Amino acid sequence: MDVDLRLVRYFTVVAEYGNFGRAATRLHLAQPSLSRQIQRLEAQLGVRLFDRSPQGSSLTDAGQAFLPRARILLQEAEQAARTARAAAQPRTVTIGYAEGLVITACVQELRRRHPDSQVRTRHLGWRDMRALAEGRVDALVAYRPLSFPTDGFRVTKLHEESRVLVTSARHHLAKEKAVSLRTLSAEELVACVSTPVVWSTPKPVGDRPAPPPPAVDDSYEDKLELIATGHCVAIFPVGDRRAAVREDIALVPVIDIDPCEVVLVTRADDPNPLLGPLEDVARALLGTTSRWENNELPVN
């Protein structure tokens, strides 16, 4: 029997979420398309995998039996692919990196040390941080917290970063040299589950009513617009420099909040021979605090 691994992965995601709509969002697919793909898999297997209802989707007995085997199948396929890539010439490694991080120096040094190897990079948005878990990159440089369980992964701490208040340049705190969390007591701060960023709930400004809170599909730039217009504030890692280029946004150090960590994550069982040298280079070049630490922030 020829079973499409892509369909198997779709099945495990639907099983994880218990809902076709949420699973489709996670997979960046339209819900009708995902439903058709699952129906294709059910046709290939000759069994029904889900009981569908308006409240969601639950696994049938056949689905319950298939799920652990499906996960093993995907893990074995990923391991086989990694082993084949590791044995191929030239050697290759793909390094994923999260929004707000710069890994140029690390990549250049790894290429210098291994000129016969192929060192690739992939910029990852916050909704794509499972690229490592899904085998689309070989390593990940990211901020904690991570958006996936770290069982079976090697997590190497590179450095800590302090945090800054990101606010409208017209905000009453914009000209302060530093602020404490007490000065933000009027803001309703909400920490993100899978990023180190803290956003405030939008509020009215003068006679302008509060806009809706940011939606899941809103881009980083959309959220910056809420800050620039004064409707909300945020707390970012100091090394995330994307807001610094805007003259209508100010960055102010926050003195009494825990720093966030930048980490290198790899699969614990990955045989890729470039991962050891990558860790050495990352420790040497990314294992120091940002050059914007100690209040050395760009001038708006």
UniProtKB/TrEMBL annotation:
HTH lysR-type domain location: 3-60
Gene3D superfamilies: Periplasmic binding protein-like II, Winged helix-like DNA-binding domain superfamily/Winged helix DNA-binding domain
InterPro entries: LysR_HTH_N (IPR000847), LysR_subst-bd (IPR005119), WH-like_DNA-bd_sf (IPR036388), WH_DNA-bd_sf (IPR036390)
Claim: Transcription is one of the keywords in the record: yes
Keyword terms of this UniProt record: DNA-binding, Transcription, Transcription regulation
Domain of life: Bacteria
DNA-binding recorded as keyword: yes
Family that this chain belongs to: Belongs to the LysR transcriptional regulatory family.
Protein name: LysR family transcriptional regulator
Upper taxonomic lineage: Bacteria, Bacillati, Actinomycetota, Actinomycetes, Kitasatosporales
